[in-house]
TrEMBL record:
The chain crosses the membrane at residues 53-78, 98-126, 147-167, 179-196. It is found in: Cell inner membrane. This is Paraquat-inducible membrane protein A. Keywords: Cell inner membrane, Cell membrane, Membrane, Transmembrane, Transmembrane helix. One of its GO terms (cellular component) is plasma membrane. It comes from the Bacteria. It comes from Thiorhodococcus mannitoliphagus. It holds the Pfam family PqiA.
Amino acid sequence: MTSAPLTANKAGLLSCETCGLLAQPASVAEPGYCPRCGSALESRRHRSIERTWALVIAAAICYIPANMLPVLGTTTLGSTEYDTIMGGVVFLFTSGSWPLALIVLIASVMVPLGKLVALSYLLITVQRGSMQGSRERTRLYRMVEFIGRWSMLDVFVDTFTVALVQLDPLMSVQPGPGVLFFAAVVVLTMIAASTFDPRLIWDALSGAGSESIPLEENSPQQESNLG
């Protein structure tokens, strides 16, 4: 029977979330600061699960009007037409611009929904104390963080379109209310990914909290950067 792997928490070490240095905290109550970059050390982010859940739920609520309300209004010779995100995807596809339609569909519909599903899955598995697939869940979290920077593509497209296409009184383009909700979804999911503590994924596997090695007061910090 294989024993549980030795983790940093079980060994009484903390990883700096700024520079990644693995260091020994001064004490349990007051971990102190990173000897490399000076950032405050934290065993776990305070109320990480509750804050992440609140942000995910808020983003899920905003996701509905973001896709139901128009994101763009086009006025041509006195006639105004409003398009939702899916309406724009359908228009681009039927007009022959299927590569652009695919990009908008992925960046504006699938990516935000995928981030919400992924963060919800990570939160549920952490709360249930799941010990399966810890590596895969960690990779999933890193992927959510990585793709977050591309989630504002649709907002940027609308902004540039509004700025470039202003031919009053022949034609004008105005952003719709859906843009605000879509931007809210993007911002909320990005903050949710930053508030979630990925170290919680490994706590159930390592038995953190009950099997950690006690810290010695005023012990020297270990300037080791090993994982």
